[in-house]
Amino acid sequence: MVIETGRMAKQATGAVFCRYGDTAVLVTATCSPEPREGIDFFPLTVDYEERLYAVGKIPGGFIKREGRPSEKAILSSRLIDRPIRPLFPKGYRNDVHIVATVLSVDQDNAPDVTAINGASAALMISGIPFLGPIGAVVVGRVDGKFIINPTIAQAEVSDMHLTVAGTKDAVIMVEAGAKEVPEEVILEAISYGHEEIKKIVSFLEDFTRECLDAGVAKPRQEPVLFLLDEEIEKQVREYAYDKMFDTLKECIEKRFPKKQREDFIENAKEEIKTYFAEKVFPEDEAALKHVADAVNKLEKEIMRKFIIQDRVRIDGRKLDEVRPIECHVGILPRTHGSGLFTRGQTQVLTVTTLGAVGDEQILDGLGVEESKRYMHHYNFPPYSVGEARFMRGPGRREIGHGALAERALEPMIPSEDEFPYTIRLVSEVLESNGSSSMGSVCGSTLSLMDAGVPIKRPVSGVAMGLIKEEDTFAVLTDIQGMEDHLGDMDFKVAGTEKGVTAIQMDIKIAGISKEILQVALTQAREGRMHILSKMLEVIDKPRPEISPYAPRIITFTIDPEKIRNVIGPGGKTIKKIIDETGVKIDIEDDGRVFIAAVDEEAGRRAREIIDKLTADVEVGKMYLGRVVKIMDFGAFVEVLPGKEGLVHISQLAEQRVGKVEDVVSVGDEIMVKVTKIDEQGRINLSRKEALKAQQQTES
Fold it and tell me: N or C: which end of the chain has fewer CB within 10 A?
């Protein structure tokens, strides 16, 4: 890995040109000179810009230029954002914009991981108060051995693809897809990756020092931080601590559902804020903003104390307790498969649609993959959290959650040879109170089995949380929204009874230890197995038959040299078959033919037509042919599409024939036998021989 600065993008606050092999990414970090007013969050934006010239491609479509970011670009933006976001000072409100422009791609060296390291370097030399550096690597495993940043060839045989990012002291982010890898191996892989990350961090520290010495890096700025007024916080604590404590304790004891709990807590907060607005800080808007922040901080502190000290959660559950689960399948009569998964107040409906091979998604990106036949889409409508707001297209969150669920199920999807369908899953989040992405994994497993897709094993998923106070910590199974918001970690784990298929870990603190990871993975397995047992009570294996409304796929192979016979000039022949039968036909370059038909009879008819178009005429075989031309010396008969032979006048009947027209006319269908095919491919036919053969059969 080579990182340089000072040659490109010199007006950005910080910029590096990062090369890893022949992969090159320009990463810039820019911040606003002043903090943004009126917000209570850190305004960080990350854009990962794919340029198709990086792989020598011209964009498809009419406009011939890059448009909206691809799903891969959005996922890569999230991959950069997640490990750097926790490492900015609390209360920092300056806008920070990271742009990673992919300029050249060598498929053996991942541009997204290069971009994470580049973003870390750009921030370190920018003067922006970033508490890094961080490093990132991909860990693969081939033949039981871990490999850092595997090549394309190694990745194809690797049983995991694990992206790890962290500081020299701790892991901050994990993103993984795996082929049922045991939890202990995942933990080893994370530790193995972290050892390499330490070397990258050391390299970036040296790079930063050299840049500072050379005057091309800016000293770290002293940021303006929006922090609580200590005196106001003290007053709020003295007045409101007991009230907030009693409010949260009542929520725990009465196990209020989400909406009732939110209203109950909000009423208590409003009473506290009203007191300060009327009695302590009348008409002082700035002070009242600090009061609101102090009340929120108090709520977080007390909730965390209940978990750490009393080992009880806001809804009364134990730390490792999963909310009540309910599963249903087959609830939509005309779809190909459906599964409804409810866990507490999180509910996901997943619908499976089976399509022809030609329905696969075509990818126009920087990777080597050009299409995919299994897709998972995730929708999060506002009513799922009781809100009324505009519905737009899928955002980064929806795309990220869909990709996570897709990754979790992908190792269990049967191959095209076993199940020649394109598979699309759509997860509709109907209710949300934590971990809807793992709910979509469970709903998808139910839906796939309901659709009769022969998945290798069922997959379940669970989200783990963390509350950490100094050296004490508590790992939570099946976190809900409030625990995600006020906790320190969101650690999603999906897999089968054999092992892990997907992981996504994000934390809000500066890193977590191996001990916490081990506890989280062990506890997650227990939670996953409990959820899976509830799912299998409803449907324990794929249905033996697919839905009657799903297309039946007929697959067979023809000689690749004869594909043109099926396509016809300008596609006329194949269009005619489709119009006549109503089926969908896909033909691969290697001669594989896929016919998709809801009506099985129509599918068989289409196959018969294709068989005739690609069949060879055989000597000695009988054919029902059609007379296409009459000459004085005989009749030309089409025995197969586009293949004609001559029935000489002497071969038209057993008796002597004076005129051809006395026996046959153009358009007549007659039975003929192939008697000879000469060296020039000319076919000789005999109606007389065919009649004899028929008489012998009848007698």
Answer: C
Both tokens of 281, joined, read 């800080």
| Closest listed residue to residue 340, CA positions, set 462, 451, 440 | 440
In this predicted structure, the answer to whether residue 679 has a pLDDT above a threshold of 90 is: no
Q: What is the pLDDT of residues 389-436, one digit of tens each?
A: 998 888 899 999 999 999 999 999 999 989 999 999 999 999 999 889
* Residue whose tokens read 């003295």: 238
Domain 325-537 in the same topology as domain 2-214: yes
Instruction: Name the binding residues.
Output: 484, 490
Q: How far apart are CA 576 and CA 562, in angstroms?
A: 17
Q: What is the pLDDT of residues 84-100, one digit of tens each?
A: 999 999 999 999 999 99
Architecture of the domain spanning 325-537: 2-Layer Sandwich (3.30)
In DSSP terms, 427 is beta-bridged to 350, 378
Spatial separation of the C-alpha atoms in residues 404 and 90, rounded to whole Å? 29
Domain positions in the chain are 2-214, 230-310, 325-537, 552-614, 621-696
Whether the predicted model's global pTM rises above the 0.85 cut: yes
The CATH code of the domain at 621-696 is: 2.40.50.140
Specify binding-site residues for Mg(2+): 484, 490
The dihedral over CA atoms of 575, 576, 578, 581, expressed in degrees to the nearest 10, equals 180
**Is the N-terminal amide bond of 458 cis, ω within 30° of 0?**
no
Could you tell me which CATH class the domain 2-214 is placed in? alpha beta
| Helix 514-536 × helix 436-450 angle, to 10° | 40
Instruction: Classify domain 552-614 at the CATH topology level.
Output: Ribosomal Protein S8; Chain: A, domain 1 (3.30.1370)
pLDDT (0 to 100) of residue 514: 87
